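Archive maintenance. Older records in this collection stored only the sequence; we are now back-filling the structure field for every entry so that each record is complete. The fields below show one back-filled record exactly as it appears after the update. Entries are processed alphabetically, and Flavin-dependent dehydrogenase is next in the queue.

ARCHIVE ENTRY
Title: Flavin-dependent dehydrogenase
Organism field: Saccharomonospora marina XMU15
Length field: 436
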Amino acid sequence: MTEYVDAVVVGARCAGSAAAVALARAGRRVVAVDSATFPSDTLSTHLLFAGGVAELAAIGALPRVHALGPPRLTVAEMTGAGITVRARYTPVDGIDHGLCVRRTGLDAALTDTAREAGAQVREATKVTDLLWDRGRVAGVRTRDRGGRERELRAPLVVGADGRRSTVARAVGAERPYRSNPNQRACLFAYWHDPDSDQRSVAAQWRAGSDLGTAFPCDDGLVMVLVMPPVERLRDGKPAAAYAEALDRLPGLRHRLRHCAQATKVRSTRDTTSYFRRSSGAGWALPGDSGHFKDPVTAQGIRDALRYGRLLGEAVAAALHDPAELDRSLLRWERRRERECLEVYQWTNGLARAEVMSPLEVEFYRAAAADEKFARHALDVFARTRRPGEVFTLRRNLRLATAALRRVRGRTDTLRTIAAELRRDVQARRARTALGR
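Back-filled structure field:
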């Protein structure tokens, strides 16, 4: 069977649903296919800062997500070196809170929103191959769970099918042109969370080279994530590695003193960050299929929603003009890279599995003493400020000066501070060069 539509979206989770919503609202006939049936789970840290919640609102999914019952996370808290920093959000499009929503409910809400906008969402349907016409992608071949095959022909195929993207592999874009290996493993489980005093707080702790978080979510649970150095998860025993990491994070253990673990531990050792070529003749890769950042800064869902939506809006009027479609896809891809490159580099820095540096300790001290600075730092996570606007070279030099006064000439600390300043300058130079 052959069917003709305006666009096919492969993958109906965050990026795919957002693209389908934008295309359907523009009056295009769009079909989204996914091998899963919803609700279904997927490996994800699923925290949204205020900027990410604003993206849910932009595609019309926020009322459905709020109906799932996640607490509004109005306070962000970071603790390290015995110093605690607390901040509230600068509102983003009127939204002053974050959310942590399990993917079973979140993704079902997104697919329902896509259907309401007019898109068809076909579950339990796998893409087996791409269709080509004179060097252009011209659709997909699918197979449902009953074994029925179908051809969906369209001028645009959106590959929103994740890190192991079938579409990226088929168009030859699977190999990144920019990547950064991870240094941290990622392990999480859900816990029953009776402590109502902390249900509005998204919290992070650092101790030694370990990092851990507690994000209250729907159904009275809290998602507890730890990110130890990746070598501590090489024995294939994630439950043991998880418990050991919790024991190395006394602040997080204290947060869980009245909680009981509700689920098994889920884990991954591979959180390599990358950019892939994300547009070509009749195809595009929003979401993790085209660009991925280490989950330490929790930017994945926000970016999937935003650049899925912007993709649909950018190409809706050009679908049946191949030359203009390709130009629109390339403009969209370049915009994403411009907007994400600095955050990508900043995230790679935070993803290093290292003990807190003297500059980081001074940053915590400065933010704990200055509420405005703390809020500006939170704005970076919410994506309303760039890292370079807040963590300026001048500010880093001031922090370095404060750290030097504190250590009083210790040679090892002096070397550490000098190395970190060099790394910061090198990253700024690299970003400038890449931008050009």
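Update note: The chain has 14 helices and 23 strands. The first strand starts at residue 2 and ends at 4.
Entry marked complete.
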